[in-house]
Amino acid sequence: MGFILISLIILIGIASYFLGNLRAKNLRTSNQKNLKSLSHYYGYYVALWAVVPALLILLMITSFKSFFIEQYVLSDFIALGSYTETELSLLFTQIENTALGIKLFDENTILINGAVNKLNYINKTSENLTYVTVLGLSGLLVLYSLFNINNKLNSRKIVEKFLLVLYFTCSLVAIMTTVGIIFSLLYETLRFFSQVPITDFLFGLNWSPQRVFVREAGDLDTRDLANAFGAVPLFAGTFLIALIAMCVSVPVGLLTAIYMSEYASPKVRDWAKPIIEILAGIPTVVYGFFAALTVAPLVRDIGQGAGLTVSSESALAAGFVMGIMIIPFISSLSDDVIKSVPQSLREGSYAMGATKRETIVKVLLPAALPGIVGSFLLAVSRAIGETMIVVMAAGLNAKLTANPLDAATTITTQIVVILIGDQEFDSPKTQSAFALGLTLFVVTLALNFIALQVVKKYTERYD
Amino acid sequence: MTDRIEQRINSLNKRLNSEKRFRIYCIGAMSFALAWVLILFLNIFSSGYSAFYRTVIQVDVPFLNLIEDTTQFSEMSSEDINNLSMYSFSKKAIYGLFPDIEEKKDKKMLIRLFSIEFEQEIREFLKSNKSNINETETIYLTASDDVDQVNKGNYPRDLDEDKRRIKDIQLLFFDDLVDRGLVSYEFNLPFLMRGDSREPELAGVGGSIVGSLFTILVVLILSFPIGIFAAIYLEEFAPKNRVTDFIEININNLAAVPSIVFGLLGLGIILNTFGLPRSTPLVGGIVLSLMTLPTIIIATRASLRAVPPSIREGALAVGATKMQAVMHHVVPVAMPGALTGTIIGLAQALGETAPLLLIGMVAFVVDVPQTPLDASASLPVQVYLWSESAERGYVEKTSATIMMLLGFLILMNLAAVLIRRKFETKW
After folding, report:
1. Do the domain assignments include residue A204?
2. Which residues of chain A make contact with B27, given a CB cutoff of 8 A?
3. How high is the ipTM of this complex?
4. Could B290 and A177 be called an inter-chain contact, meaning their C-beta atoms sit closer than 8 Å?
5. Bridge pairing between strands B183-187 and B136-142
6. Residue A82 pLDDT more than 70?
7. Would the pTM of this model clear 0.80, i.e. be above it?
8. Could you list the residue range(s) of the whole structural domain that residue A415 is in?
9. Cβ contacts (< 8 Å) between B413 and chain A: which residues?
10. Are residues A389 and A286 in the same domain?
């Protein structure tokens, strides 16, 4: 229904553009009236009146319709007064199913049948009513705006004002997204902390939310809650895997950047740089699959060959693959920073007889250090927020360990493990995922903020 | 004197040697990075290409046993054919491959060489060729996943029998069929067309391709206009004040927020507060648009900034309003850059998995979705789902799905590069 209606509104909009345009031209030629704007602006003016209010009304109707329909259909049951909220919504689903032809057993057949008839009736009527309201409104406003065209109306100003407001609203989406993120995270997190003390969450050593899940909500013990949500093992696992990733990506990324900016001929650079950047464009789920299926067994076999016990979900495998993923972030950022060191510093160093290596290590790197550190920090924030590699290749059970050959779990893994599938929103288990999300959000934002500050300081030095 | 010269030469050699070493380290690091690109692609391709063909086994089906006169089929409607009871008939047709088998257990093993939908396949054949069915027709039936993997050489035959999913007697049957030339390969069209399935040989990526297309479509419809309008406002109209600064800080921060946090936003606000339907490309598209908006805004702003001021001033000088100058002269010139940014943002959205897991796009969906409001998976989610399955057949399917995903990404990036090359004006 919505699709047809929207298409109709757009058709009316296009037609009314031509109507407005035509009427403005007619006024100009027949009445010798001196209109204030070009004719096509009157077309846009009429089209806006035709489309915008109609779409807004349609949006309002679709958002509130289901509520009123439910109230109307259930009015008999509500009048009985013996049903709770959840029972009513269950009833409504049942009525909907019956209307679709799925018969389920029930004692109140007469009432249900009555409600089904009501539902069919209201669905039909509300659909017709929506068509009439929206299209009627659109048509009325087209007529109104067509007759509104006269020599006092400056339609260009109105159209431009509308566009400006539209553009501004679009740019507000960024703020609304941030507010939405903070609101959704904070709301659930606060509910979580009302049941589990924040200190237990931040400093507890035991993470086993499934224990809370197994029991009935009625006999939850507060001591139980306290012991189930200690996030330290997750923080440690996240840190461990990010550390391994950095151990791979920092040397490789930095040396690659140095090679690209100082040694490579333009030709080598032209084909090597895009190839390395492919690594940044590959979806993370692909890395996850690669880590779980190829690298993890390899690491395990090598480890066992050396007489070590290696978990098949070792932190090493996940961290290593994550490190490969991060290489291009470090290499391309550091490359830019090293290249932007003024040429005079290089030439000065060569003039003193320094070799290339000495110039790089003793002159260029110290000069570019803040930018390079900035790129490291951005890479760390990437590694901490990375989800799919760890979900597929790292462990799922929280265990406090510093051994890279052991299975470790991360913040992001636990969010996915908790929230995948069906969730019940009143359980502290589900809410704990949002608390983890908030932690992640705050940490990555802080890292990015510091990184940007560091980079900014650097650019100030040479400009 | 010579001592000092020698010392100098020694120290110079040392410095030159360390210079050489350093250079080798650098080349080594770069080769390491390049090698992993190669390893990754080779690994995926070598394990994935075999999913694009499948094993079929030729079976002679004696339709005369089903009906006295095979011309009668032409008068039957599809409904009638659906109502025919064909199960034991189909089984008998398969027993016909080895007429000597008597034992019930062996017969069962023989049936297990085929996919569980063998009856359905014979029925479909009947439906599409009902006007000219001969007394006996040769039909290519899909082999079961185990046979398929053995035939492709992906499955170790020399394991102990109790560790294998395929039994000795089945291998005997299989080898005999190969000798008789009844086993062959066929292009795996069902893999591209069908939805997901619990049986690897019947599982396809069709559903998730359509799911991905719907998701990307929603992202395009939402994020392209919003991103470009926001960029135009911020670059051309925004006054220098606190609100503008705040918007800019927000956009830069959002670009750095981990994707899974957007999943939490989708779950908390879009699903629970607004009550949009779970598991659908619509919700997935909304979440991914919020995620890609910063990319599009930043790219569009950069290309707007690159338009020289002379264009704006020229338009203003001949009497255009600010809005006319921007919309008629600046934006068209900046459009290639904006399009490139949008395509790169869409590619990012296409490969994203984590937020979709949280809004329930991991449901097991057998049907190919018809609208963006049907539950569905997407390509990367399909990769995740299949990689969790134990069956051998899913490994090649997963790799093949990755190949298709990478193929789409390469096409999109190529398009972005081409647009940039062809339309971008250098000033």
Report:
1. no
2. 259, 263
3. 0.90
4. yes
5. unpaired
6. yes
7. yes
8. 231-462
9. 281
10. yes
